[in-house]
Amino acid sequence: MARIDSFLKLGLQQGCSDVHLAVGVPPMLRMHGDLMPIKFRDLADTELEGYIEEILTESQREVFSRGHDLDFSYVSEEGGRFRVNLFRKDTGIGATFRYIPPDIPTLESLGLPPIVKKLCDHHQGMVLVTGSTGTGKSTTLASMIDHLNKTRNVNIISLEDPIEFVHPSKNSQVIQRELGTHLPSFAAGVRAAMREDPDVILVGELRDAETISMAMTAAETGHLVLGTLHTTGAVKTIDRVVDALPAEQREQTKSFLSQSLNAVITQVLVKTPDGRGRKAVLEIMVMTRAIAKLIMTDQTHQIPAQLQTGRDRGMQLMDQALLEAIEQKAVDPDDAYVYASDKRQFQRYVSDTGILPRMNLAEGSS
User: Fold this and answer.
1) Which of 200, 12, 195 is nearest to 122 (CA)?
2) How far apart are CA 308 and CA 317, in angstroms?
3) Residue 114: its pLDDT value, please?
4) What's the rounded Cα separation, in Å, for the pair 256 and 244?
5) Going by C-beta distance under 8 Å and a sequence separation of 6 or more, which residues neighbour residue 186?
6) Helix/strand/coil (H, E, C) string of 138-185?
7) Rounded CA gap, 267 and 326, in Å?
8) Spatial separation of the C-alpha atoms in residues 204 and 268, rounded to whole Å
9) Alpha carbon distance 179, 162 (integer Å)
């Protein structure tokens, strides 16, 4: 058994989401959003390198030795599956192990709004799931893929970095391809997928102009494209896509978004009232004629008003979703306050009043 498995086993026993290993500090576990050190010595450079060396393949060692960061999946002997990011920093190497549960959660078990399931019924166009790192985007997409896999007879091609949840084919055929193992880039993966008779293409991350352009082409030519962006809201997502492509393609990109972007889902993970878990809270934009017109006329700043009044279409602002979750006692009000945009309407729910002046002071200085 690899020595690193002992730390991963401890993390699984504690119910953590991530195990952090870095030179100069003890191993740390992320528990319900908070990082906590375990009782262990500070890791030395050669010690941690030895741990990592035991789990790398020859090709992975070669890539990392050239100075590149490394993303890969790892299955410990204890049975846990992890997404790993290996990197270098000023004092030595570091690694983050994200636990991937063996069972794919259903959309219902995640408590996601019904509109998310309806978005899976589209046969073409693009659905973007956005949010900061560690907000559960991969889990939401895995649940959407699993729903499609169980309810439709389609060919699903998933491009990931690395493969996280494993999808056995059910009613659909699911082909999972990994960046660096099966394909050199997401853009190349989308280009190849277009020749593989796909119905649904999942793009792990729309990280560059070429990938975004290829994904847009796929969505325009009769495929359902699911993808992620590290953006925090519908407006920022639309602006990011428009700004990512060359200026001469600006009008074409806006036209694509107004016609082929089905929805933008933005999520955060908020602590539950007992502090023992986290719940996904979603802002949702569903494309309408009014929103399409705002995109075409460069008035994306007015989109939040459309989300606020579009509840009958399944839309909601993040603040609306947070308030509703507080009223349903599904999340901790103090943690929800941190994620709120208009914090004034959340202040009456806050129990730890110590966070109010600090937050207000920060707002006043920005």
Assistant:
1) 200
2) 6
3) 97
4) 14
5) 159, 161, 179, 203, 204, 205, 206, 207, 208, 211, 214
6) HHHHHHHHHHHHHHCCCEEEEEECCCCCCCCCCCCEEEEEEECCCECC
7) 16
8) 18
9) 6
Contact call for residues 271 and 331 (beta carbons, < 8 A): yes
The span from the CA of 130 to the CA of 342, in Å, is: 20
Nearest residue to 29 (alpha-carbon basis) of 46, 13, 16, 44: 16
Q: Are strands 28-31 and 224-229 parallel, antiparallel or unpaired?
A: unpaired
pLDDT at 357: 54
Which residues, in sequence order, are bridge partners of residue 178? 160
CA distances for 315 relative to 225, 279, 308, angstroms: 20, 18, 7
Number of H helices, E strands in the chain: 14, 13
The C-alpha atoms of residue 263 and residue 236 are separated, in whole angstroms, by 13
pLDDT at 79: 75
The DSSP letter of residue 56 is -
pLDDT at 366: 40
Q: Is 309 helix (H, G, I), strand (E, B) or coil?
A: coil
pLDDT on residue 355: 78
Helix, strand or coil for residue 239? Answer: helix
Count other Cβ atoms within 10 Å, centred on residue 64. Answer: 19
Token pair of 247 as six digits = 């200026």
| Rg for the chain, CA atoms, rounded | 21
Q: Is 52 exposed, middle or buried (0-12, 13-18, 19+ CB in 10 A)?
A: buried
CA–CA separation, 321 and 340 (whole Å): 10
The CA distances from residue 269 to 120, 196, 200, 314, in Å, are: 22, 35, 27, 20
Taking the C-alpha atoms of residue 131 and residue 265, their distance in angstroms, rounded to an integer, is 8
Direct distance between the N- and C-terminal alpha carbons of the chain, in angstroms, rounded to an integer:
51
Q: What residues contact residue 304 under an 8 Å CB cut-off, 6+ apart?
A: 234, 235, 317
* pLDDT lower than 50: segments of the chain: 359-366
- Secondary element (H or E) of residue 127: strand 125-130
Cα 153 from Cα 144, distance rounded (Å):
14
Phi then psi for 344, rounded to 5 degrees? Answer: -60, -40
pLDDT digits (tens, 9 = 90+) for 235-290: 999 999 999 999 999 999 999 999 999 999 999 999 999 999 999 999 999 999 99
The torsion region of residue 24 among left (phi > 0), alpha (psi -120 to 50) and beta comes to left
